[in-house]
Structure formats: structure tokens, C-alpha cells
Amino acid sequence: MNASWNVEGEDTAARPREWITRAGFEGWVLHEEAADALTSAVAWNGGSDEATIQRWLDYYAREGIERVAIGVLVLRARAGEGWTRSRVLTHGPRAAGPALERLFTGADTAANVLATLRLLPAPDLEIEQAIRRGSKGWELARALLRTTGGLPFETSVDDTVLDFVRGLDGRPLSSFLATVAPATRPEVLAVARGRLELGFLVPAE
Hints:
Largest sheet: 5 strands, mixed
Number of helices: 7
Strand content: 25-35%
Order of helices and strands: EHEEHHEEHEEEEHHHE
């Protein structure tokens, strides 16, 4: 469902996540960045006359609304304790059925089975790199993982995470963990879990 809400504090999605939990559901909040009151009033009224915009601003002022967010809530009946997740959409969603299934699969994955999964990069994953010349020659300046399907997510990664993602070939994650120092394994699992939840990685079929 589409939703709009008053934003208080730093967590833009706090209010809809509370709604989801209180209503007995679990799911995702996919939202735009919050807009200030004036930007929101103009956007909702499609450039109407100044009097209309001012009525909206007066309403916002009476209600103490300084920032407004809009987004999409994707819900299902809660199983057990349930969970909520949120993500900023920098571009509007397209046909997103398979991408949403990936998000729910990732969030459903229990921590104690993560190491047994056989993971692959998502089929719509792109890697964008910028290389610059430094004192030791050409080096990675920045890298992005980007999904290009129904939900266009992107995230910055360092060269360690980049090598990890590139190295996934469908073997159980435990085989990759065996090649790294024990002290770094929790970090690797956290990276895998985070990228799986956002659909950058998928379980091998």
C-alpha cells in the first residue's frame, strides 16, 4: 500500500515500522527521502495557487509537521516475533515481484543457517568501479553494487567486500569461511547477511 507520514527524528521509517508491528504484520518500508513542509505541500498540490499551498503549510504548522515522507508498505501476516525492514528508494520501483520475493527471503533467513547457504550474485547485479592513480599506481577509488531490476538499490562497498561478492560461485558459504581467519568470520557473515537481505545476493537454485 502507498503511505505518507510525519517524520520525527533521524529514522525516516520509524513511524510506518511501528504501524506494521502494531497491526500484526511484518514487511518492508520502501520510501523516498523525507521532504520539508514546503516541498511536500507543493508536491502534493501540483503547483496550485499560493493560497492553497499556504493552507497546507498552516495545517502542517498546527500539527507540528516539519518533514513528510512517502513510500510503499509491503506487508504480510506476522509469523512469530516478526520483523520490519526499510530502505530508501532513489528511483521509483518498476515491476518488482521477483525483487520483493528476494527481500523477504533474505529477511527470513535465520542467522544459524546462513553459513550453509549456497550464494550467488543476483542476476541483475551490476558492479560499478572508479579507479584512480595514486602513489602506488592505479587503485580502487570507489565501488558500488547496484541492482537494475524491479527495485533499483545500490550500496557502496570496499575492495574486500567486492572480492567477496565476485568470489561467490554457488558453493556453501561455509567453504568460503574456511579460507579466512576465524576472527574475521563474523564480519564476513554480517556482510553476506546484509547483502542477502537487500537482494544483492541470492541463494543458488
